[in-house]
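your task:
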Amino acid sequence: MAEEKIKVGIIGPGNIGTDLMYKVMKSKHLQMDFMTGIVESEGLKRAAALGFKTSTEGVKAVADDKDVKIVFDATMASAHIVNAPILKAAGKIAIDMTPAAVGPYVVPCCNLDKVKDADNFNMVTCGGQATIPIVNAINEVCDVEYAEIVASISSKSAGPGTRASIDEFTQTTRKGLEIIGGADRARAIIILNPAEPPVMMCNTIYTIVKNPDEEAIKAAVEKRVKEVQQYVPGYRLRVPPIVEGNKVTVIIQVEGAGDFLPKYSGNLDIINSAAIAVAEKIAAKMLGK
């Protein structure tokens, strides 16, 4: 007898949505059921070829489907502002892949247990998922006064949705660094690197701490990296903490799993992997596990 799973839908059949589909197919508690967009696309064709329901009616189609319990919104920030109340009215749990931030910010290894009863989960940004865990870890031992992150991603892995939401990316990441990371003040920068061959996602994290303790910082960062690796295996400490007075510098590299996208698309892989971790937790609760 097949194990019971929770059916999910995906709005947005682009790179993020398609990669999510393949990740859901590997999930223990999630069952891929519905892919929807607003126009015919390669993503919808792939979903249909795999036997999943598809539609070009956008959020309405998945909101009207009574079987779907969890919905990933992989559109863009402006679209999720419209989609969120429709999904809520339909009784769906929304996992927001955009920087819209309608619901609480979620970074699985930092605060999922605190917000697990929400009905809309904001996955912050790819840069946020990569850097907030490190800032949060440093803050737990040394009190971060200021955090600044520079997320450098391959230009090829930045699709139309990412490019249309860059302003929201910087603001949402900054807020996430403060709200979840614990920094008193923060700043976020994103760089689209056109290099050939494409480069891996690289995140440089600068913090100013009030109570520097080099050994405590190194131990906290190493522990946190291992926690993130539980759901993002390609998450690596490229440069361990460099402590210079009250300034701490850490560099993180993210290699994608290659489920659908190239491995250099670590930016998309980390936010998708984090979203799957959230959905798995919700589904397990629904299944009484």
